[in-house]
Request: fold
Amino acid sequence: MREINLTDAAAFHALSSHYAEAKNWQMRTLFSGQPDRFDRFSTEAAGLLLDYSKNRLNDTTMQLLFQLARERGLEQKRDAMFSGERINVTEHRSALHTALRMPRSATLVVDGQDVLPEVHAVLDHMQAFTERVRSGAWLGATGRAITDIVNIGIGGSDLGPAMACRALRPFTHPRLTMHFVSNVDGHDLDAVLSKVNPATTLFIIASKTFTTRETMMNAQSAREWFLSRHVAADLPKHFVAVSTNVEAVREFGIDPDNMFPFWDWVGGRYSIWSAIGLPLALAIGFDAFSEFLGGAHAMDQHFRTAPLERNMPVIMGMIGVWYRNFFGTTSLSIAPYHQDLNRFPAYLQQLEMESNGKRVAADGVTLSVQTCPVVWGDVGTNGQHAYFQLLHLGTDIIPVDFIAALKPMHDLSGHHTVLLANCFAQSEAFMRGKNTEEVRADLRAQHLSDKEIEALRPHKIFPGNRPSNTILMDELAPATLGALIALYEHKVFVQGAIWGINSFDQWGVELGKVLAKNIEPELTGTPRPDAHDSSTNALIARAKAALSE
Ligand code: F6P
Reply:
């Protein structure tokens, strides 16, 4: 039976009426009227604290949002995902990234078969391999230990491992340097090959399909580079593969014994927990990688069992729906106040926008509501010196997710207190703003004339009432990073369930790939002007001329 339209849900109507008054609330007033507001609108799980009190909501808002979640069958949809139902309806697949981090004591029967033994068999293979490389037992062509790991992959086969290896940089083996090549632009691979020694470099060709154009081109070039310096017999010591496509891996020339498989029920943007996480396991060691999995599993258990009212992914997801579908916000800014999370916004861009950037419901009907906002961001405090002007004084309300660790992984004195002070100050500034009386008093205190004050005042008023979440962890470690990633995975699931979309396919990437295959031969061969518009033809002609100089 077709799911009713989101806008026909009783709770949606109630929220629309509620919004008519809520839109006028000032958070300053909400805080002054509720001294225990933080206690009421914060929750903890899996080593994370979510402070969602600096949002434009009250108890009634949250009750109505949870009512909407129940009306949309969120709990049933969640259970269907965890149990391996084929919820990815356009590809007839399960979405079982949660199975990848289940403990060895667990079982998960899907289509009559327990899927966990093969998950743990791959983990055993990863453990044996990573221990050989890290111990120095795995030797390269000239009998030396590996010093550099080059992961060649793109999208989910790059963003997750690259983000996690940076995030857990302090845990990296001292002999290993991690490199990530993703772009088909040769400058990416060239920059890495110019830095590494083939005799001590291990290449990981990471591709779920083992057909992605960028990855296969980079892999071929890396192999040619290696073979220009070493014999083919040494290739297996320097190339391994992570894929679901055994035949393509074998054709590439990688020994299937050096292949780490995963399954079609692991979405690319949900695959860091699988063998795609091999670079991370190499960098931090298998025990720490197991802690990473454990942190995600802890968040899974929280998501599965906590009542909606205390459920961190549900709260974050529903607040996002409140802003997107009632306030009409169009983007979400991610502000990690931790330099080692500098790739986290980019990671979330794929996780959120490739999952929920859709205009059609799972049953194929075009949606009448807005879905995933644009997700973007950068680390703090840098963002304060780049785009926070717009966040504070621009014409759009853009919710912000602040993320910080209370303890640093360095011993440089004073830095961390300045960082945390800025993080907390920014969310306070967004919330309270600075009104005209406060601005006037400030300018008078600077002894400006009345004329100068009146000229400057409008430019220095901060409207405030701009919402944010703050996520805190004790320190950025394998378990807390795992929990943080799983938190966002489940938040994305919650929003997809509310909007009624399939969060696990990605047909939007297909058209560009096909058109690129058409254009590529025209850049080196005969143009086909009848196949394109005047712009594309002109661009092809100009590139063709330049490339033939
Ligand atoms: O962007 C499309 C996509 O299929 C992603 O979903 C995926 O993570 C990426 O390309 C790479 O795919 P593969 O791992 O198969 O090379």
Notes: The domain at 6-87+304-432+466-505 is CATH 3.40.50.10490 (Rossmann fold). The mean pLDDT is 97. The chain has 21 helices and 13 strands.
